[in-house]
Structure formats: C-alpha cells, structure tokens
Design brief:
Length: 87
Amino acid sequence: MTMREKDLMCDDLVLKLTTGIPLTPAEKSHLAECEDCMLRVVTALDQSVARNGTKNELSRERPEAIKALEQGRKVFEREFGITFPKK
C-alpha cells in the first residue's frame, strides 16, 4: 500500500468512526494495526471536546455527554465486540 493509499484509508476510517458508519472487516484489521489511524481518531475527539466545551465542563454530568458516552459504547460493541460496563 502506498503512503497516499494509507492516508486515504486512514481518513476514511476516521470519518466512518466519527459519523457512526460501520467498518468493514478489512478496515477493522487496519485500524487495529495502524497507529496513525488511532492518533487521528484521538485528535478528532480532542477537537470535538474543544468545540463543545472544556474538559472541566465535560466532567459534570450533562445530557449531551451521557448521550455521547452511550453512543461510543455502542460503536465499540458493534465494531469490535467490546462491551464496557455501565456505572
């Protein structure tokens, strides 16, 4: 895979993860092995926090934060079979 193809795949994976589009098995495999993809996902999440409030604001229970957390749990369960316990 060329660097350009890898960059395009990483961009596509981040877009899918942040918009809730299911990943293919090949994409899941790539994500599991690609540090660049994970860095991009974390960066996208950090940017989302910056747009939507400070970390201190997010530490307080808010309906939007609770909804986002639940959506994140669903994505990890659907895409990777990982189930996180609820509080």
